[in-house]
Design a protein that fits this description.
Elements lengths: L5 E4 L2 H6 L4 H13 L3 E8 L1 H6 L2 H13 L8 E7 L11 H18 L2 H6 L1 E4 L5
Helix pairs in contact: 2-4, 4-5
Amino acid sequence: DCGCEWVILGHPERRTIFSETDDLIREKVTHALDAGMKVVACVVETAEDRKTGNTRETLFTQMNALAAAITDWSRVVLAFEALWASGTGVLATPGQVQEVLAELRQWLKDNVSNSVANNTRIIYAGSVS
């Protein structure tokens, strides 16, 4: 009603403070897209994911939930956030960010299509130096 076109879903604070699950975020993405909104869909890596080498598994699980909800990828921006680098004083390096963004783009290629992989906007939404 207020003219807003975009909504951010899957934000790290919603995932952690309100315990929003991948399934709930998928439902929210479906609802937002069905309502004509555009979505900034966040995928999040925790310090534990990074420490244990589970970044890919964690992000790909989140991507699977998102992909189940998205039929028009032109209305979606993916936002990667390294939660361990947000407000902690520890900053992600450009190399760490680029590595994950490339993995997300490859996931899109392998699981959705070359076109979606080539055209979907993927941004880094965390702290940097």
